[in-house]
Amino acid sequence: MVAEGTLLWEPTDDIVARARLTRYLEWLGRAGSGYEEVWRWSVDSPAEFWTSIWDYFQVIGERGDGPVMTGTMPGAEWFTGSSVNYAENALRERDGIAAVFVSEDGARQELTHAELRDEVARVRAGLVRLGVRRGDRVAGYLPNIPQALIAFLATASLGAIWSAGSPDFGVPSVVDRFKQIEPKVLIAVDGYHYNGKSYDRSAAVNEIAAELPSLRATVWIPYLTAAAEGQPPRAEPGAAHTGSVPHGEVIGWEGLRAEEAPLEFERVPFDHPLWILYSSGTTGLPKPIVHGHGGVILEHLKSLSFHQDLGEGDVFFWYTTTGWMMWNYLIGALLVGATPVLYDGSATYPSPAVLWRIAASEEVTYFGVGAPYIMASLKAGIVPEGLEALRGIGSTGSPLPPEGFTWVAEQLPGIPLGSFSGGTDVCTGFVGATMLHPIRAGIIPCRSLGARVESFDPLGEPVVGEVGELVLTQPMPSMPVMFWNDPDGERYRESYFDVYPGVWRHGDWIKLNEDGSCVIYGRSDSTLNRGGVRMGTSEFYRVVERFEEITDSLVIDTGQLGQEGRLLLYLTLAEGATLSDALVDALRTALRQELSPRHVPNEIHAVPGIPRTLSGKKLEVPVRRILLGTPVEEAANPDAMANPEVLRHFKP
Known about the structure:
This protein is α/β, with parallel strands linked by helices. Helices cover about 30% and strands about 25% of the residues. The protein has 21 helices and 36 strands. The strands form 11 sheets. It has a 7-stranded mixed beta sheet with strand order 7-6-19-18-20-21-22, with helices on both faces. Strands 9-8-10-13-14 form a 5-stranded parallel beta sheet, with helices on both faces. Strands 27-28-30-31 form a 4-stranded antiparallel beta sheet. Strand 8, helix 7 and strand 9 (about 160-165) form a beta-alpha-beta unit. Residues about 235-240 have low confidence and may be disordered.
């Protein structure tokens, strides 16, 4: 065990001097200011701060004469009267490599900035021929391949609205998402590769298209066929792979991009919809979260430059699929002139070290993964090599325990690991790191610039040094402009503002420290509370999943308001391991010693799998509902789950 707060890395004077945040502070005339002082200014004077971001990065567009910020949450408006286009800012004329694509089967492709602009112009013209106009929706059922990036930028250039799902999503899950937004065009692959296997999705695409009567066209990318035949991925599909779609025409990617055309951009209002992302959707239909062009541009310029320290000449790799908001964040590298690495494949095939090897071979300067990958690397005894170009590592998706921080510090001395936390809701991090902050085990160094993050007690009072609800007491430009099909904003208000009126409640437990650093303890609606001792589930998992015999775990407190319940621990065991008395005793002893006697489970059970969302989050709340009597079929939406079959193993 590693003590929380152990100092692991400190920036040298040279690192601080070279940091992009330092350059911004010099430009701002605040070179001598400490970070907390600058953060305070950024949230006390939001109009001045966000205007400085527009000016510093020379955002392309018309800023207009309107106020920078009007109104309050929910419903604050930004840069009234301005007009911008995300694609125009992402596709500035630059030299060199714009993006790199790597797949697990060994394929690799580079796109220069000139080639990317040409491809976007061609696909843009193809979408226009299919009738796509400003405000129309284009849906992608695509892995993390160049065509996904190209299609998104082409869509955005028109002022049309992008929405994507990964091809490992099931048909009902995709239909639940896309049917709500009525896309005019669906762009899809015939299959994908994962973990050394190929998965044909031709039938699934036909089923999805059949459920979308709004379609004018379905565009096929013969990704599997082309790979099998040794052709480029954009080759025309064979007739056997196009199937029969009842709505609109069916064409191939080559047909879509067939004609040369000038690259043009439709400038739109600051809050004009750019893309639609989706909540986890554990119950009911997934919430279609709409972000605007301007908010995403400003937020990603700020976050990628100052918190990831990315800019011209850098190479940015974050392991993600198109179905996770980190894909949208990854491609934001184009906004700051960095090169995104698009990877399609498994994180553990052909080796658990594959992502580290890609980071080495592509000379990545900033490498990001979900926290579980770092812990899996630790357990697998991986020794990352060849990472001379690396300047920073990012972790997100779930809390990273101190042992994960320490492993990175030991394996890659001199490379800071920044843990970030935010969400799909804002497509960024609320809290994170910079190159100016020391790195301490288990600690997130700072609140992000422009994000007024606070910790509230149950009465809505801010607290420091104790665990409370993560809230934002001031709007950010990248907050949703709306939920799709929510004309009166009721779903939006219920999602974030139902507990503290006028204050965004994010649903995480956070402890803010006096110096502005913080610790995230997991979801606030799944926290353990035993005899008044409250602790996030992340600390519980930190103890349990340290055991080699355990590959995954889920802890549930069935207590209700005014009534203490049972504490139940569910384990997925490693191959060959059994839930022996010795293992049970060892777990109970570790939990008693490292957490408290109140945190020793009443029962410990082995299950074949831990239920997770499609984006990999543990489903604690639905399991708790089942244990409190909710029928399994009503507790969670199986189409929003990666493994719905395991739910039946959790019964009262």
